[in-house]
Structures are given as structure tokens and as C-alpha cells.
DNA sequence: GTCTGTATGTACGAAACCGCACACAAGACT
DNA sequence: AGTCTTGTGTGCGGTTTCGTACATACAGAC
């Protein structure tokens, strides 16, 4: 489950810390303090990192995995609040002071993440330095994603939401493949499995995606973006804005406005 | 619009700082620093405190007013992300580091709020003392509300959501009256006005509420809670948990678990 | 090859909600 | 008093999604 950490690795399948964009963004000084405590951890599909109400003992920096923050209602129906991949951290409630969240964190796409003891993260956060700023800034981006999800749930069709969901997932993985059944996607979107089947069929027959028993491949990403609602672009822009600010070394000129 | 501030007031219509629960929760030391900069401000119905993307020059601590954080989509359709009343602050993006949010803050129920210059709040936040902790903790509660709203949008009927919305609003006002047209409620919930008319008619004919051209009165609150989905209770519990922690003087025993 | 569980496809009536159109009534304005 | 604006009530056809039931097809186990 855990291995000794490595700054870099020759095996492209084994991620290094810098594959997480938050870990990559911090300065050398903080890296020196944090990196020794990072434990590379395998996250199998469906693994629950936190259950609703759990006290968090670790936080996770995904590298090539994706974690969904899922809200589960009393009657068992669920809705995805946000997605966390290599651009983020799972466990923000830790430093926000609540200790626990009323949502479940579940591995949506298997891979690896760097695990960090809550105390270590809290200690670094409480130094009120760069990490503090970075984490708050990330939380802000996460809030944007949640707000957009709420609005998207209200106003957009399953077809559009599936496109959004696929794009958000693809952004967090390398390559154009994703292992995910329609049943699980339906849980994330909070809709029936049949609804996803229908939406995915349309995309497949239009040649935009290709799927087969839990394996999805995106063939025509531009068209996927075209069929998507605005929600994807807003979330992505906010996420990019975060890392623009934290790029090292600081750029003199920003390539995009 | 602004008046000289008063620690207390004899006129029950003019709120004092302590009518905002965040301002009430902070210690005497911080009060000394903050209170002189607070400006009592009138918030008329429909006033926009921030437009999407605005840089925030002030933050607001509502007393007897309610502010909605509303997400407005490209096509003009909208959805309420969260509500802020005397339990909170409008403008969290300021200290979260994003400077702006992609949502609109609009006065949903007219009243007063204490306005504070962004620089002053940021300065106090950056002392990393009690205010810092309190604001982050509040943000966590707000995140919970947003997550719950997202899930509620997905799974619950207009009838249930109207109950939730009424309860959340009533909690933030004294009395059992609310001035609000069905049209505006529809904007908040992101549904048609007719849908609200129908849901409100049911409540009225059941004797739970009484309304008349923009004036709503809650007659049977227990029944309102009974018809509501779980979402209200979750949000309220999280909000209460925040102030339990910050009650002064600290209690030896907590009356509720 | 057969079996079995899992993933996906299809169908159909019901419910919720939408968009629209219009009626009506209470205040506000002149 | 008459007119206009605003807030609410109602009806109807259309769309989306739901709930449910069942069929099909693939993959791995034996």
C-alpha cells in the first residue's frame, strides 16, 4: 500500500510528488519539511477515504487518481459535489476547522495519491506561510466548482452533465481513457443508470466517445466540449487561475489574460 | 445610508453589532480593533452587494437582513447557492484569496448589515488569531450549505425545497413574517414562478403559511419542518455547531451532543 | 464449452417540471 | 374614476426524468 517516497522515478507508472500540482507549486523550503512525510498510496476504485462525519486522520494529494466528493442522502440517493484530482487535495475540512465533512470521499478512478498525516498538514498550514495561502486559494476554487455543480444540477440536461463530467475527469488523467461503468457515473451525477446509458449512446453513435463494459475512450474532445454546458469551462478557468498565480518561477508575463 | 455605530441601542429597529452572531462571538480584544470600522448600512431589497467577478471592497455582516448568493448562468437562469443572514458574513472570497467570486450577492430580505472595509477585515484575518479561525470555520459551514443545496437541487421536489427555503429564511429573521414575492423565490430556487405558486398554494390551503402579494407569514412552523426534506436540518445543525464552539464564555458542558 | 455475474440496451407508464398564454385581482398612479 | 403595473391563479401540451421490468451481451471462472 505504501512505499518509500521518491523525488522522481524512472517508471512512468509510479508517480512522483510533483505529479500533484499543489505539491509541485510549493517552494523548496516547504517541500523540505513536507516531502519526508508523504506516503505514496495506492487508491483502488471505490475506496472510501472518508465517510460522512469521519474525523480525518490523513489528507490525500492525488496524482493519477480521481476522488469524488459525494453527498449521500438519507434515502441512499447521492450527488457528486466536486471532483478532486492532481490539481487538489482531499480533506480540506481538516484545516478549515470543522474536522469532519458531511460528505463521502470515494475513489472514482483508481491510481495513486500521496497521503499525509493530518497533524503534519495542520502544522504546515498553521505556519501561515505559502501552504496556508495555497490551500485557502484551492478551497476557493473548490467552492466555485461546488457552486457550479449546484447550478448545473438545476438547469442542465443529463446529456450536458455527462459531457461536463467526462471533461472534468479527462483533465485529471493522462491519456484519453477512463475506467468507469455507467452505473457509477449515474451515482455521481445523481441520476438513473438508464439515463446515463441513453446519453452515452448518443455520444457513442456520434463518434465522440467509445465505451465498452466500463472502459470509456474519448475520441473527439472538441465536440465533447461543444455539447457541454458552460459549467465545465467556468470550473476549469477557476482551477487554472489558481495555478497561474502559483507558478514557479513567477512569470513576468502571463501568456493568457 | 451609514450612521455612527453604537454598541447598543434603545430603538429595537436599529440593530447593534452583536445582532450578527459572528461579530458577537469574537473576543473583547478583537472587538476593540474591529468595531470602530463597522458602518451600519441599510440594505434595500434587491440591492446587489457584489456582481459576479467583482473585486470586493467591503464585506458585510448582516443583522436583520438576508443576502442570497446567487449563481447566474449565461442564459439568465439562476440558482441560489447559499443564504447568509445574521449567522454569517458576505464576502468570504476576500480572505480565501480569490478576490472575487463567480456569484452574485443580492439582498433577499431588506434590513441592515455592518459593512467593513476589505482591508480591515483582511488585516484582522492575517493576524491569524481568533477571527481567522472563526471565519474559516464559518466558511466550512457555508460549504456544507452549498453541498446540501446541490444535492437538494438534484433530488427534491419544489414543494420540499420551498419549505427548506422558508425555514432557512425564517431562522435569519425575527418574527414569522417575510416580504418576498413568489417570482423572487422562484429565481432563488431556480424554478418557474408558477411552480412556486402551486407549492405555496398547497401550504396556504393546509394552513401552514399565509401570503398576500409579497408578504408571507408562517403559521405552523412544525408542520413546515415536517414537510421539508432533510436538507434544512443538516444545514441548521452545521450552523449551530459553529456557534456552539464559539460561545463565550466557554461552557463546561455542552447541552447537546 | 458452460456457467454466472456484470454491464448495457430497451420499453412504457407515471411524475415533475417547463414554456407559454391568459385571466384576474389588488394596489399604485394620475 | 379610470388606467397601469404588479402579483397571483390556472390550464395545456411538451419534454425530461423517473421507476420498474426485462432482455441481451460480454468476460471471467471452472
Automatic annotation (TrEMBL), chains A, B:
Is this entry keyworded Isomerase? no
For this UniProt entry, the molecular function terms from Gene Ontology, in alphabetical order, are:
DNA binding; DNA-binding transcription factor activity; kinase activity
Record's keyword annotation contains Magnesium: no
Alphabetic keyword roster:
DNA-binding, Kinase, Transcription, Transcription regulation, Transferase
Q: Which InterPro entries match?
A: cNMP-bd_dom, cNMP-bd_dom_sf, Env_Response_Regulators, HTH_CRP, RmlC-like_jellyroll, WH_DNA-bd_sf
The segment(s) forming the Cyclic nucleotide-binding domain are 22-109
User: Ranges for the HTH crp-type domain?
Assistant: 156-222
The UniProt entry, under SMART domains, shows: cNMP, HTH_CRP
Entry GO CC? cytosol
What PANTHER family does the record tag this protein with?
CRP FAMILY TRANSCRIPTIONAL REGULATORY PROTEIN, HTH-TYPE TRANSCRIPTIONAL REGULATOR ARCR
- Listed name of the protein: cAMP-binding domain of CRP or a regulatory subunit of cAMP-dependent protein kinases
The organism encoding this protein is Marinospirillum alkaliphilum DSM 21637
Taxonomic path: Bacteria, Pseudomonadati, Pseudomonadota, Gammaproteobacteria, Oceanospirillales
